[in-house]
Amino acid sequence: MRLRSILWGVALTLVAPVCRGEMIAPLKIPLLMSANFGELRPNHFHSGIDLKTQGRTGLPVYAMDGGYVSRVVVSPWGFGRAVYINHPSGLTTVYGHLKSFAPFIDEVVRRLQYEQEDFSIDCEFADGEIPVGQGDMIGYSGNAGSSGGPHLHLDIRDTETQDPMDPQEWLSQYITDDVVPEVRRLVVYTHAGEMENEARRLERKAVRSSAGVYTIDDAVPVWGDVSLGIEAYDRMTGTANKYGVHQVDLYVDDSLFFSTSIDRYSFDETRYINSFTEDGKIMRTYVAPGNRLKSIYKQVENHGILHIGEERPYRCRYVLTDYNGNQSVLNFSLMGTLQQPVEPQKSGIYFSYAVDNLYKKDDFSLFVPAGALYENIDFTRRKLDSQRYCSDTHIIGPDDILLHRPADVSIRLRRDEAADKSQYYLVRMKGKRVYPVNGHYENGWYKAKIRNFGSYAVAIDSVSPSIQPITPERWGSRGRVSLKIADAESGIRSYRGEIDGKFVLFELDGKTGRIHYTLESARVKKGGSHDLKVRVTDMCGNEQVYTGSFVW
Questions:
Q1: In a 10 Å sphere around its CB, with 0-12 CB exposed, 13-18 middle and 19+ buried, how is residue 86 labelled?
Q2: Mean pLDDT confidence for 442-457
Q3: pLDDT for 284-298, tens place per residue?
Q4: Widest Cα–Cα separation across the chain
Q5: Which has more confidence, 171 or 341?
Q6: 107 Cβ contact list (under 8 Å, min separation 6)
Q7: Do the beta carbons of residue 200 and residue 190 sit within 8 Å?
Q8: Within 13 Å and on the Cβ side, how many CA atoms surround 96?
Q9: DSSP H or E run through 71
């Protein structure tokens, strides 16, 4: 694992070495990745790799090493069905988005689901409870949870810290890659003041001049303090997918100015990706004062800010390296051009990243705790009259701010007309989409925690969820009961299914909103008519009940 000193004043955290161990591939097919370790994702780095399963589900998944099942998670979202295995090497492997578990795991999981009367479970196990040998089949690949298509998600973690590490270190012999990274564009940010939202940006498209070599046609004229950003992706042999770049080095006048490399990180750090990137695509050199991400930065000069104070060209070179050592280069120049600094346009209130910030008016308050912001901002708030909602629409700016920690917002209702106060909820408006945010009502105000600035208002949800049976005339012949559940406003909180007055385990697919139960003779007596009851509750407490009967 490559390691360089960090030059910008953050102490290097020493991590105890983990035994590498010998592992086998989790699939018995040629391994191709649809996503690699450390890819840029909304609010997080990708914690593992995604292995293609030939566009289908149901491939056997094997334990990469011996050990014991330490945790099993079942959820309509996230990893869906996932198995965690602890190994004597000090490593934990995680297998996500499974279609189903192997029988020796499924028996334990289903018992726990029926004990808790809940499809979603998260259970931990001690050494010896569910032993696993290397090469044992632990489940079948699937598309469960928040998966965008059939694949196997694989994490390899340090068992003690749960830090994710790049699985390619253990699987490199199974994966071929001789394709260099691809460069899309360069962004130059000018820093005119101390506010994050005062920086201006200049964007240039990268031009490919030869294999692995990119250029910017003209020198970029700048003056004063600037930082840089690059949009780039890795490519791999045998696929058309794009991936995250393993290592990014920036040289200025042939001296290394900035370097990142992602081999492992801490989950406590992962949300700092919102400061590292712009829009989840552009990797920035600037390390904001509230950015506590340490593990990926290998060298950073002056917090990633370059001072342009001479009227001359500054020769710059980005070097992008993938895990296998394939490299691409972006050559460009910054031309020091004397110019008048742009005066920051301040229109709001100074919010500091380092301390608590409180804004309070007659009908609105916002508390942003220390550490929620990555940098100081020029905070603004305005409101619009709204006939649609129970409050004014409050627009919190800058609206592109993502918070590292939740902020507390309180909005006073203009029309406090709901007899049942639990029917109120907060909505966040982004473009044409509306997202529910759940909090609580208190004396004419609605209070909630938010993670984003933007437009907010208080809505009322008095509409019950919907339940729609799917081909009920075929439930008996197919041996499977299926329904679609949905809620158009505050979202679904819970659901429960019963047949002949007894709980049965309906599985929920979070992507489609479908629930289904495969009929079992041990729980439902075969050879007669059966009564079905499904109850669905939304986040505001509205309920819908479906009743029906079928023959099996």
A1: buried
A2: 98
A3: 999 999 999 999 999
A4: 89
A5: 171
A6: none
A7: yes
A8: 23
A9: strand 67-74
